[in-house]
Amino acid sequence: MSSNSCSACLAAASELPAAPPAAPEQDAARWPAVASLSLGVFGLVTAEFLPASLLTAMAADLHVSVGAAGQAVTATALVGAVAAPAVPLLTRRLDRRWVLLALTALLLLSNVLASTAQSLGVLLAGRVVLGIALGGFWSMAAALTMRLVPAPLFPRAMSLVLTGVSIATVCAAPVGAWMGELWGWRSAFVAAGAVGVLAFAVQLITLPALPPHGESSLRAMGELFTRPAVRFALLAVLLVISGHFAGFTYIRAVMEQVTRLPVEAISAVLLGYGIGGFFGNFAGGWLAGRSERHAIAAGGALIVLLAASLLVAGSSPVVTAVAVSLWGFAFGAFPVGFQTWIVRAAPDQAEAAGGLIVAAFQIAIASGAIGGGLLVDHVGALGAPAFAVVAVTLGTLLTWRWGPRVVPAPA
């Protein structure tokens, strides 16, 4: 078979219908239930981000090194990567409403353990519990959102769910640091626990019964890898997200060593990143509603330009501030774009596909942080944005060539 024929087959395989073929389970959108998922996501991401702003205080109180206390973050990420595909499999016969409520209860338990921990072991146990809740919740979020609204409204609904991430990104670290300074680091986890209680109550009231849908099994998950659209989506995630996190994880090093900004300016620029991400989430949802391929490609192309601007003019405070803020805006297209891509690629196995995409995100985050770190250590601070330029360019080109193309539904 010629290379042109192979390309034609791959392009055809990547063409997806404008919406999942499965009929929605209800005619009207259940927006209060969608909002309850957003509240749950806000609680999970807030709890996930808190240690970053409280690490030194936690280490001093628990009489451990800062590096040891930092393993609270590692534990959550590693467990989350395993829980994402495992939770849908282990709960495949249970009503998804009760599974989500159980995961939110685990969020509450994790904050109780963290806020009362008198040793590193108890703190890590709480973070492991959070990893289970985080991975399980994310793996099912897109699939269940798709069941709560009619298919044409899915990108908008997914954007609402991801608003919880944007708000947590803007608020969690500064509010956690402020509360830790006033009342001690444990108070921040008490507040996060209160968010968990609120999320549980709202979900209990608003979520309808959601019987198991589709076959969640290892064989079904393995079958997903035979679908070209799923393979391309996962590969695009690995490239784009690893590039993003390689660049952004070490952006502070760029601002300190290249731009030479003071700490106060760095905090302000990072706040700009969070605000940009908040608005980028809505813009990404709007664009993904028309074409997730265009949303991902546009976000990727913008990040490539911004990372390249840091390589060329990173010593300029104005260029750096604008680039970092717009970087947050560009990243907003990725979560909703990739989630929409994967559930449309496998609407009959949306939960299993959601688990795979979450696991791919975690692997990409780890690989980007490692790859960017190696370049920073051996090349300098600008090695991280250089990694971002290469990886995000490859992922964007892959998405543009083999990403989903919306085709008209048959009359």
Helix content: over 70%
Strand arrangement within the widest β-sheet reads 1-2
Strand residues, percent: under 5%
Distance between the termini: 34 Å
Shape: globular
Please explain how this structure is put together.
This protein is mainly alpha-helical. It contains 17 helices and 2 strands. α7 (154-183) runs antiparallel to α8 (185-206) and α12 runs antiparallel to α13 (292-313). The model is unreliable at 1-26 and 407-411 (pLDDT under 50).
Structural descriptors:
single chain; mainly alpha; two-stranded parallel sheet; 17 helices; globular; disordered N terminus; disordered C terminus
Concise account of the structure shown:
With 411 residues, the protein is mainly alpha-helical. It has helices spanning 3-13, 31-62, 66-69, 71-90, 96-116, 120-148, 154-183, 185-206, 218-224, 228-249, 251-257, 263-290, 292-313, 317-331, 333-345, 350-378, 383-402, and strands at residues 15-17, 405-407.
